[in-house]
Amino acid sequence: MSKVPLAILDPAIATRVVHADLPSDVELWRLDIPQDEAALLLMRHTLDTAELQRADRYRRLVDRACFVVTRHMLRALLAARTGESAEALQFETNAHGKPSLRDYPTLAFNVSHSGSQALIALSAQRTIGVDIEKLDAALDWREISEVALSADEHTQVESMPDDLQPQMFMRCWTAKEALLKATGLGIAVADVLRATTVDPRSEDVQCLQVRSLERVPQPLCFRWIDGAAGYVCCIAWGE
C-alpha cells in the first residue's frame, strides 16, 4: 500500500486499527472528528460539488464535521490505494444505493460515523461493512429490538444485567448493520434483521450466512473492535 501523505491524512485524526483477526487485505481506520470550523475549511478542497452541497445542508457543526472529515479521509485513503489525486476521484452509486469508486470497481470501501467518531474500511479482495454507534441513554432500544432482534438475541440481551442490556443490544445492532452494509442491503430490511442471529456476548470472530440482495445466503464474518469510550464498533467482511 502506498504511504498516505500526512498533510492529507492527519495522524491526530486518523488511527489505523490493527487486529490479528482482520484479514491482511482489510485496512481499517478510526477517526476522531475535530469540532473546528477552521479544520473543516482545510479539508473541503478535496470534496466535489455534490459533497460540498450535502455538507452545507448539515446545520449542526458535529454533523457537518463528521461528513466533511470522513469524506476527506476516505478520499485520502482511496488516493493512496489508487495512485490518483484525492480531488480527482469520482464516486458512483448502483441501483441499490451502494457507492463505488468509478474506474476501480473492485476496490471496496465502507464508512460509518456517529457522534464525534467514524470508521473507514477498505479492501481490494472482499466486500466489507462497518458500523459505529454512540451509546445514548435516551435511546428506546427496547422498542427498536422488536424489529431488529431475532428471538434468540432478544433472550440473550434480556438475560444480561440491566446496566449491560443497552450495550448488548447495540452490539447486535452494529453487527447487523455492518453485515447488511457488506451485502449491499439497507438496514431497513426488517425481515433480514430478524432472520440473522449474532451472539452479543462473544469476543471472537463470528461467521454466518446473511441473505444478499439476490436473496442468496452470503458467507460473511464479523467482529466487534475497540473504540472510544461510549461507542460500539463492528466490522464485517466476506470470506
From TrEMBL:
Keywords: Transferase. This is 4'-phosphopantetheinyl transferase superfamily protein. SUPFAM superfamilies: 4'-phosphopantetheinyl transferase (SSF56214). Signal peptide: none annotated. The keyword Zinc does not apply. Residues 128-235 form the 4'-phosphopantetheinyl transferase domain. Residues 39-121 form the 4'-phosphopantetheinyl transferase N-terminal domain. Pfam families: AASDHPPT_N, ACPS. Belongs to the P-Pant transferase superfamily. Gsp/Sfp/HetI/AcpT family. PANTHER family: L-AMINOADIPATE-SEMIALDEHYDE DEHYDROGENASE-PHOSPHOPANTETHEINYL TRANSFERASE, PHOSPHOPANTETHEINE TRANSFERASE. GO terms for molecular function: transferase activity. InterPro entries: 4-PPantetheinyl_Trfase_dom, 4-PPantetheinyl_Trfase_dom_sf, AASDHPPT_N, P-Pant_transferase_sf.
